[in-house]
């Protein structure tokens, strides 16, 4: 799908049309609200769960990302409860760090919170905050990612527009005047990818520097680099769920900056 900048003024809207060419932006508002609610609810529970649990009931943890390491005390999905102090990038001797832990032993809400953390985060204790003597379910960087995700989704709820393609929908968060130059030269994809790279870059640099050198980041740096990564994550998810071509009669009815028109190639 390419664009053709056109001369002349954009067609007048009659009050029932918005600048995206649809009769309303109910879907875009719902997308932002729902994504913010999902991520925001989990973020709140990450803080409330350890506060509501008995003091010192969650020991120091250190597992692997994208795997269950603390589902059970032994056998399957219990890697974190062993002595993994020789593992290169994660793990420790759990007996020397507060003893075994299994989130399946917790109440359903707490189990869900820590299960999500177990699957998605290394849960290294020295990279995590502690409340009431209990380690949070995710590390500080993930806190920043979640916060950035929620903030972006709330902004999307107010500004995002369905503009047929993901790239045009993604860029709709800006005012039309500020992004016209990307439409004159058809650099919409380049603009979107540059924004994503800027958001993910600081976290990638900080994380890979830790991985490949003796450098150890600080929790302040982790939350500062996690926020923009989460922000662009919320941005791209909002755009993907909001871009709906079937809501238009045809590509010509999509109203774009610089009076550009979508055309099939």
Bin the strand percentage: under 5%
Compute the average pLDDT: 88
Note the run of SSEs as H and E.
EHHEEHHHHHE
The helix count comes to 7
What kind of sheet is the major sheet? 2 strands, antiparallel
The rounded distance between the terminal residues' Cα atoms is: 6 Å
Helix content: 40-55%
* Strands in their spatial order, largest beta sheet: 1-4
Q: Total number of β-strand segments?
A: 4
| Principal-axes shape call | elongated
Please state the structural category.
mainly alpha
- List unreliable stretches of 5+ residues: 7-17
- Structural domains: how many: 2
Radius of gyration, whole Å:
23 Å
Summarize the structure.
With 265 residues, the protein is mainly alpha-helical. It has helices spanning 26-52, 108-120, 140-159, 166-171, 180-184, 188-212, 219-242; strands spanning 2-4, 130-131, 134-135, 261-263.
